[in-house]
Structures are given as structure tokens and as C-alpha cells.
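Adenylate kinase, Termitidicoccus mucosus. C-alpha cells?
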Amino acid sequence: MLGPNDSFPEPVLAKLRSLNIEHVSPAGLMRQEISRRTPLGQQAERAARQGRPLADETTFALMRRWFWTRKPDAGFALGDFPATLLQAKVFDEWLDARDETLSAVIAAPGAAPQPVVDHYRAQGLLIEDGALAA
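C-alpha cells:
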């Protein structure tokens, strides 16, 4: 899902929750790291106190750990990742390395970063917002 979770209609989020798949977001993983007081969590907490967003390297560290420790071919829904074109391309490489593919990418209308939307549209994976109602 491209864009913040709160930018998606409730029926879409409810459907995702009803599926037996893991729902992961960098923000959720970061909250876990902060509560466990890990070095990564402490780094993120400092950034948040200073009003800075998560650096790409921190986001990659969180998502990389999750991606490479999950069961192969286990279903998942990602929220707010990838958020940049670089993140999308790196995520594509991770998928290729595990011989996995995405089924679809849903973009929050007006909230998703256009370069990432265009990247997944070019791959034929983007579900346009009009198709969400179907």
C-alpha cells in the first residue's frame, strides 16, 4: 500500500485485516524497536524528538530484518513502504533474490509518492483507486 495507512478507505483496511496475512509498516516496526530499547529504536527515538523523519538507512534496516526473517512466500501487506523510488527498487531486488513477486500495489489517492506509483504502474502491478471499489 503506497501512502500512509490512514489515507486508505476503511473498507480496504478492513478487507486486509480479514485476510490471513501479515500487515507490516516501518512505523509499526519502529514502535517495536523503541519499546524494546534497541539501538535502532533509540536512534529513531532521537530523530523523532528532533522532528526528523526516519532516514532511508534506518527504514532499510528495519524492513530488511523483517523481510529476510519472515517465512518464504508468506503473504504480507506493507503499509507506507516503499515510500521512495530508491526503496521500491531495493525492495524489488529483495523480492528477486528470494524469487518472489508482488501480487498488486494499491496507491492511496493523492497520498502516494508519484515516482513510486509510476514505478509500479510500469510493472503492471498498480491497482488504480477506481478499482478499489470493485
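The chain has a mean pLDDT of 84.
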